[in-house]
Structure formats: structure tokens, C-alpha cells
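Hi U.,

Before I forget, here's the chain from the pilot set. I'm dumping it here mostly so it's searchable later in email.
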Amino acid sequence: MYDRAKAERPVRFYERLLRLTAGRFLGKPFVLAAWQAFAVAQIFGHVDSQGQRLVSEAFIQIAKKNGKSEWAAGLALYLLLADNEPAAEIYGAAASRAQAGLVFNVAAKMVAQSRELHDRLKVYRRSQRIVKRADPWSFYQVISADANTGDGVNPHACIFDEIHRQRYTELYNVLKFGMSARSQGLMLGITTAGAQDSSPLARGLYEKALRVQRGELKDPGFFGMVFEGDQKRRQHRGKPGTAQSHEAIL
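Structure:
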């Protein structure tokens, strides 16, 4: 079923606590774009009969310069700080540490711009780690395929940036398998539009997203959203929530 209050909660987290980090938007409140709000609502709004989040795997393909990194950084901070998961391990993954560090740097800037976030989170730039002060076992950590550091993790969530650059599935599979002990784990892959053919992993997620959208495959645990060029349609599953809620953000 669709829980509108749970769909709205992360949207308000962005708008109340986060500030944008670059260009003419620097320091402005993070008011989500339509695609960002839609994705958040779909990922967090669908729940089972016990109120647990249904979506455990998601794939988003979006063109460059659409706020992908800022949105992903905000999502990592929400999952770390406000998803009510004890000892939450949040990983920012990519094919290389440099790529994974791009989203981390945005998240670190967001923490620096917010007194409320700064009071609750500690940023370690050298190790690329953000720790929840009230629960030091909860953290956001950069991880990459080229560092061979995937084994032994217990992720609550993983945001895999530019997944089209990931030639092999090992890191993705290790992180996904490590998530099995979590009741509301989330594996999110993001890629640049038109680049999925360079990675079998990205291609597989892309094709699954289209099959779900067309009704050829039913998987309530999967959310896919694909933006194509002018010759193709935007693909998605479900409808965004629109209700307002006064539930506390933190």
C-alpha cells in the first residue's frame, strides 16, 4: 500500500534541513525538482502490511546537470540520520574512489551549511566518512571497486553512483548480499542517460526498469525511473504521493 506520510517525510527533510552547494544556488534551501520528489515518494511511500518499506532496489537514469549528485547526497544523509535504523551503514559506492567521493563531498558541504546537521553528524574528510554522533555505529562511508573493500559490510543502504562505469558486478552483489539482514535495506543505482550499454550491470537494471514499467514483470521491491532522449518516452512505475503531513522530520 501507499503511505503518503512516509512519502512526504524525506521530502520535508530535504526542504527544511538541506542547502544546495554550488553555483548560483549555493546556500539556498533544497526544494526538490519534480523528478527528485517523484523518486523519493515512490521509494519511501510504498510499504507492506507492517508499515515496512517495500522498495529494496532502485535504478534511476537521468541526463547530466539535473541535480543527480545533490539529490543522492541528500538521500544518503536522510538514510543515515532520519530513517530510524540503528547502526545504519550507508555506503556511497562507485567504480573508483574518486567517483564515489563526489557525492560524499556534496554531503559534507550540506552538513557544514546546517547547524542542525552539524550538531548531529561528524564529518571525517580524509577517510570520507560521516558519523552519527548519537550512534557512532551509524555512518556514511565511501567505498569503491578499485579498493577491494566490499567484504564484511552490513549495509542499511547503498547509493551506487554512475553505475554505468561499473564493468563488473562483484561490488554491487557483495553490498546487496550484505543487506540481507536489514529489514528496510535500499540498493540504489544511478546512471547518466544513454550510457548504460557500457556496463552489463547497468544494462540489466535498465532493462528491468522498462519491463516493470511495461507490466511484463511484477516486482514490488523494485523501482525504476528512466529518462530518455526526444525519441523515447520517460519510463516510471507508480504515481507520486501528494498528501501533506505534519509528522516530525527527526
